[in-house]
Design brief:
Layout: E1 4-10, H1 35-48, E2 54-57, H2 59-64, H3 66-74, E3 78-81, H4 94-112, E4 118-119, H5 132-139, E5 144-145, E6 175-176, E7 181-184, E8 187-190, H6 194-199, H7 202-216, E9 221-224, H8 241-248, H9 251-264, E10 267-268, H10 270-274
Parallel strand pairs: 1-2, 1-9, 1-10, 2-3, 4-5, 5-6
Antiparallel strand pairs: 7-8
Length: 280
Amino acid sequence: MPVNAMTIDVEDYFQVSAFSDHISRAAWDSLPCRIERNMDIILELLHRHDVHATFFTLGWIAERYPQLIRRITENGHELASHGYHHYRASDQSRSEFHEDVYSSKALLEDISGQRIKGYRAPSFSIGANNLWAFDTLLETGYLYSSSIYPIRHDHYGMPEAPRFKFRPRGEQGILEIPVTTATLLGRNLPAAGGGYFRLIPYALSHWLIHRINTLDNESCIFYFHPWEIDPQQPQQTGIGVKTRFRHYVNLAHMEKKIHTLLTDFAWDRMDALFLGKLHD
């Protein structure tokens, strides 16, 4: 049975893309942060299960909580980049994207003392219209990306992309490791975390991941966010019904579901599973 990759996108509740029209980046420093509290729970949960994970981390978080970054690496986890300000790659010019991925990588490396190999675009925002972003990632020293979600979604997705690891720019290009989907009735369905995992019954998620491990003989790339285990986070006002549902559904059950998931399957870091000798 393949070992799966556990990944966490390290951002706070007010930094999610769905709130970007309601909470300005200029206001971030004035808002109550929950990231340390939530990361304490996640790191303890992973320690309890003896699981090492990959943390795709915002530069904004790293700059303000360097001790948290050191705790991630000291506990044997992989530190990776999620950009600096949580700007979607699809909303940036080439020069803006270059600056974002270069500066966030340099900052994470300065704090941790470790090479940063992986990148995940906020909101899985690399797709058919900005494949040039993979060239920039290679130029700035990344070894892999996990930025494509091969599904149809109103905010992101590239359903025509391969479901498992591939090199979008040819054999000399960067390795892309998409978030995992399961194919049912000819359609790719989300099978690896986020709001979908909170929404559907755990038994269905378990079945989908087991199906990928056995039928496809592939590792599952699972992801979640620290704010997803925090039902006490400040509630946002003035947001739409769909956004409210997507963000807040079943937050109170998420920690228990993650615990069960860690019990039921084998997990490791992205670099350990996909980079081989480059892990060291």
